[in-house]
Each structure stands twice: as C-alpha cells, then as structure tokens.
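Supplementary Note 3. Input sequence used for the single-chain structure prediction.
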Amino acid sequence: MLNVSRLQVRYGGITAVRDLSIRVDEGETVLLVGANGAGKSSLINAVIGLVPASGGSISLKGADIHGLSCERRARHGIGYSPEGRHVFPLMSVRDNVLCGGFRLSGAQQRASYDWLASLFPMLAERAAQPAGQLSGGQQQIVAIARAMSSRPALLLLDEPFLGLAPVWIEQISRAVRQFQAQGATILMTEQMAVPALKLATRAYVMRGGIVTREGSPAEIREAALSNEYL
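The predicted structure, written as discrete structure tokens, is reproduced below.
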C-alpha cells in the first residue's frame, strides 16, 4: 500500500528524517514508536504532503505521489488526523467531520456520519455544537472521525492518544479496531506506545530521524520496556 524509500526531510540546516525506509502493506496497522523529536511527525507530514521531501521516494499503491499536493494525495485515498487535534473551532461537530468526506456524495456523507456516530456516540450527541467548545478528548475524536469519514485507503494517525485520559484512549482504540475489521490500512505514531502496540500488527522504532528497529508488537514491547517511549 505505502512504500517510503530512503526518505530525507530537512528544515533549513536541520535533518529531521534521514535515509529512512518503511513499508505499510494492505490491511496492516503499522506503528512508528519514538520519543518527541524522533522524526515521526516529519515522516507523516511528508507522506501527506505538508512538508517536502528533500530526497527519496514515496509511493501509494505503486504510484509515485512525491509531486502531488495535499489535496491530490487525499483524493488518492489518504486520510489524516494530525497531532494536536486541529479542529475548526467555530464549525459544528458534524461539519468538521463531514469536511473530511469532501470526495463523497451527499448520501454517502450522511451514511458515513451515521456509521461514525455508531463508533463514537458523542458525534450524535454533540452534532450541532461548535467543535471549539468540546473537551480535548472530544476534539481528538472529531479529528479522527474526520480522517475516517471518507473511508480512506490509508489512514494516518499522528499521536492519536497524546494527552488523553484512559477513557478516551479506550474509545478511540475500540473505533480503530472496528475500522481494522473492515480491512483498513493504518500508519500511526505514538510516543507512549503501550496502548498503540495493542492495535499494531508491526512496528518501527525511530530515533534521531532513522529507524533503529523493526518487529512485531511483542518484540518491540519486550526490547523497549526501559525506554522513554513506553
């Protein structure tokens, strides 16, 4: 589904990602584990097109997407939930979610919202409320639902559990499992990886902009119990 080969991302004179290669096969949930500053978000941002790659290649379903805009990458089937939520505060919860399904017809958008509300009951309860009035955990659910609303071929989740109480982590985890049951392909990042490893089929450890280890969730958990990203 996704192949990243020898990727480099630079910000001025700083190299955030260096010669990095990962793959995400169809139907997998792949986790990028690492401390703050490891390069996880830079990798995600390069995949969605928010930052340019200064080297290497990115392909989706065998097609090179290196030169495509964010919008065109979304149209190719990439959904994205950013670190830090970033909802549209004055728009209603419903409109926040539906703007992620801009490729869908009106009927498809309504069906998508009903499906998402079955995963996240808060979306039905707060549909007309401005998203800026929600708690942090509720805003994170809106951001993730927006990314899911188009039923993307590849879902990118950047730090979905960051700063959340256990009750919200569990609710998001339940929804991700249901999305996985439909054959979803997911690439996610996390600093505190314990709940995320429960969702992953495979994981990479990142440090200093490079991959230092790859393995199953059990292998990564066993190898990294003493490290700060667990």
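The chain has a mean pLDDT of 89. The radius of gyration is 17 Å.
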